[in-house]
Design goal:
alpha/beta, 15 strands, binds uridine-5'-diphosphate-xylopyranose
Length: 444
């Protein structure tokens, strides 16, 4: 089939390359000429395992082509997937200007039947809005359908999530559009047997926002439980494990920490709440989810303060800057927020992140960047863990003990077994678990 993807950011580029890899002829389009240049030069503008290789291979095969001309995306194509950004305004209102602009350009270029498919996370009602734009702008007699086909990929596992999806949701009232989308995903459906949910556009749009909002709710729930644990001496990890064994609850997304970040969860919680309210439905639960998430960072900073006394002048090693492990993405990163607040409080921060340091240095020039976790910890009063990179959990605690000034770890991601850290001679403050100490501060 001949497909196009407009907006080749994290979602769009992965989608375009994966669709090419299952045999389609795919045109990826982005107005950002610099981004297109990077991709054509054989690189990718973000860190995502397997994507650079896949994009290079599909460009070389000729199945994937890249352009800056949005109008080209519609000519002679069966389906156009719209994957442009949908940021939120400060009020939480979703900013759909990019979607609308793309819809206008596509509309004017329609030359034959095409399915315009929204793949970005958009509020319910966007599909209808796109239809109105296209009806107003398309040449007389232009044939098209609108569909919603939300994306569920996670950064870090994007290729696998796309080629082995947990489900494919196809929202359209047109049987012709649904059949084309089923065909587009045919090889994946055949190979994986994943469920295909066919529904109307509004339901498909709401599946996406509901899924992300529910994931955020799980995280805020366990973070609130962590807070209770911190007051009662209970252990949130054991609680999450025991809860997760109930298949009705499930074990994933119950890791307590400094809260969720990234491009999707924070934005989608706010946008979903705003959208619900615009339809006259209050969604106080999502307000609470958002609030618990913000408060987690303040609580974490209190823990750091508990560990080092005055933050002003404290020498701190910050491990992790990306919003989660496996990515260089700093967007709404709780780790960056923590690092910034520590700097504002007058701490001297040496940071290390396996992937995100170049961009972090631009955003926070006062951060001193280290070459590895030990280098960051040289002479530190405390090691402050902000991102759940597995390599941090694998550090040699004996070696770490030798380089720090005070053996104190404040862990915002619960990466260690408290007993192991105490046995290595550290004081260990984590989230929702009792503080342990293998070191007597008074003798230091
Ligand atoms: C998310 C959704 O998971 C994905 O389905 C959707 O398509 C896009 O948004 P992503 O933004 O890649 O994916 O991040 P995710 O893996 O969901 O993590 C989001 C944040 O939650 C990270 O900051 C992570 O550290 C945090 N998190 C996750 C927790 O604090 N605890 C957990 O148990 C899980």
């Amino acid at each position: 089939m001949r497909l196009a993807v407009v907006g080749i950011g994290h979602v769009g580029l992965v989608h375009a390359a994966c669709m090419a890899s299952i045999g389609h002829d795919v045109l990826g389009v982005d107005e950002d000429a610099a981004k297109v240049e990077v991709i054509l030069a054989g690189s990718t503008p973000f860190v995502e395992p397997g994507v650079t290789e896949l994009v290079r291979a599909e460009l070389a095969s000729g199945r994937l082509q890249i352009s800056t001309q949005v109008a080209d995306a519609v000519r002679g194509r069966d389906i156009v997937f719209v994957c442009v950004g949908t940021p939120t305004r400060p009020t939480g209102e979703p900013d759909l200007s990019q979607v609308e602009r793309v819809a206008q350009t596509l509309a004017e270029a329609i030359d034959d039947y095409v399915v315009i498919t929204e793949k970005s996370t958009v509020p319910v009602g966007t599909g209808e809005a796109i239809r109105r734009v296209i009806e107003a702008r398309a040449p007389a007699g232009a044939e098209f359908d609108i569909a919603s086909n939300p994306e569920f990929l996670q950064e870090g596992t994007a290729v696998r999530d796309t080629l082995e999806p947990t489900r494919i949701v196809i929202g359209s009232t047109s049987e012709r559009a649904r059949a084309l989308l089923r065909d587009a995903y045919g090889p994946i459906i055949e190979q994986t047997g994943c469920p295909v949910i066919e529904t109307d556009i509004e339901t498909a749009e709401l599946v996406k926002h509901s899924s992300n909002a529910f994931l955020a709710t799980k995280i805020s729930f366990i973070n609130q439980v962590a807070e209770i644990c911190e007051q009662t001496g209970a252990d949130v990890e054991t609680i999450a494990y025991a809860m997760g064994l109930d298949p009705r609850i499930g074990s994933r997304f119950l890791s307590a920490g400094i809260g969720y970040g990234g491009e999707c969860l924070p934005k989608d919680v706010q946008a979903y709440r705003y959208t619900a309210e615009s339809y006259g439905v209050a969604f106080p639960l999502l307000h609470a989810v958002d609030q618990v998430n913000s408060e987690r960072r303040a609580r974490f900073l209190e823990r750091v303060q508990e560990a080092v006394g005055d933050l002003a002048g404290a020498r701190l090693a910050v491990w992790g800057l990306a919003f989660k492990a496996g990515t260089d993405d700093l967007r709404r990163s709780p780790a960056m927020d923590v690092a910034e607040r520590l700097l504002q409080a007058g701490a001297h921060v040496r940071a290390f992140d396996p992937a995100a340091m170049t961009d972090a240095a631009t955003l926070l020039p006062d951060l001193v960047m280290a070459i590895d976790p030990y280098d960051a910890a040289e002479g530190a009063d405390a090691v402050v863990i902000c991102t759940e990179w597995p390599e941090f959990a694998e550090v040699d605690l004996e070696r770490l003990r030798r380089v720090v000034s005070r053996p104190v770890i404040v862990d915002g991601r619960n990466l260690f077994e408290p007993a192991d850290v105490a046995a290595a001679g550290f004081s260990y403050l984590s989230m929702g678990r009792p503080t342990v100490s293998g070191w007597d501060d008074a003798t230091a």
